[in-house]
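Quick check before the chapter quiz. The format below is the same one you will see on the exam, so make sure you can read both the input and the output lines.
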Amino acid sequence: MTLTQFSPDDSPQGAAAAPVRVLVVDDSRAQRRILTMQLERWGYHVTEAESGEAALDFCRAQEFDIVLSDWVMTGMTGLEFCQAFRALPREGYGYFILLTSKSEKAEVADGLENGADDFLSKPVNSDELRARLRAGQRIVSMQNELVFKNHLVSTTLGQIQKLYDSLDRDLIEARKLQQSLVRDRFRDFGLGRAWLMIQPSGHVGGDLVGSFIIDERRIALFSVDVSGHGVASAMMTARLAGLLSSGSPDQNIALCLTAEGARDAWPPDEVAARLNRMMIEDVQVEQYFTMAYAEIDLLDGQVHLVQAGHPYPMILRRTGRIERVGQGGMPIGLIPGASYQSESTVLLPGDRLFLVSDGVTECPGQSGELGEDGLAAILKSSAGLQGQELLESLMWDLSDHADGQDFPDDVSCLLFEYTGPV
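Here is the expected output.
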């Protein structure tokens, strides 16, 4: 595309790098030469055509900024040429002036309806011609600038789309990687079994649930919800997954060694405090997270847990009764030196422990957020289901509460069923 530029006074001399191209069409050689000499003297780049047919051939080969055409010509008339000219494909705009001795308003209107922009009466007055040409230049300049900007916008949108497509592919891969952090959706610990469920609200999310073995009789369960959404939250969950990994016990922030060299674990309240110090002193980002962390003795069902700003852990007793456990507590990474308190309870064979993110309890619906009372009601109504079926039922009930709408926040849940010694 060629963009013709004009100087502030609209003179073609101001656009020496791209002179204004004018096509003069007249079957009278004398008339063409008179017009051409005037135009060239004013600095225009002029091409002559002796007929409408010849003019069309020129227009198919190149684009002209302004066309001066006689109306009455042998063969194709100026009006017919104007119609054909408008039908040609081109990027920029061509300003079309008909030269005519016709003065009837109906004929002038007919010319305008067929694509002409302006008229000049013959014989052509030199000053009037120059004024009409300048008016045409302004219109062509504005049209060409609009075409250029539209082209620029289209190109930019294309580049943005490519970036979006690339980012979308990266996010899809990031989602796969994040899902791999919760690879074991079911774990059988012999005296207890755990099921995990996680559903990000976008490509990637900030929720994490998992478990790891402390020693031959103790396990740890955790549910984490990092503030915010998107890539930053997902990167933090990846880091926390490494710090609470069962595959790399040496890197696990919750594990330690006894004086005899045996594997042990920090109490749940100390695990929360250690994570808080790490967030404040080492990570130093404007992020925080909530967490529920539980240590369970598989032999006697003893549970020690800490609740750090997370929704209350719930126990569905084998009798059907719901109990809430926890001390509330501050989120991790907000306040230096924050302290946390552990709480203890006991699981009996057949009892089930639930750790959920606030994407569950704060799920919106027509009646408001689900809340912990709503979650307790759902769990009681599904008490007859087991394991994965119970989690799937929870998701269906949550979707019904949200009226089938997409969840606005990440949703995650950990279900632990204690079977106890045989």
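If your answer matched, good. Confidence is low (pLDDT under 50) at residues 1-17.
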